[in-house]
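Bit of a strange request maybe. I'm writing a small parser for structure token strings and I need a real example to test against, not something I typed by hand. Could someone generate the tokens for this chain?
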Amino acid sequence: MSQDALHGNASPPVAPSRRVRQVLGSKRLAELCDRTTDAVRKWDRPRSKGGTGGLVPAEFQARILRLAEAENLPISATDLIAEPQL
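Reply from user aminoacidic:
Good idea to test on real output. This should exercise your parser:
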């Protein structure tokens, strides 16, 4: 267990949409998903504001995982699965 977790200082988990953008970058993610960079950035918005609450839409998850595996990128299915933030 990390020192942060022991002392209650664990940082909040990174939303799946943000994690994927950190690894791939907005432009590459947008191209992979055939979306604009603005569209993939909107995934971070709460659902009440037209986003996905930080979730990566299911229709793109397999595509992202295939690329991550092919290029040995640090993205796993666990990184893409999370509870929605309302």
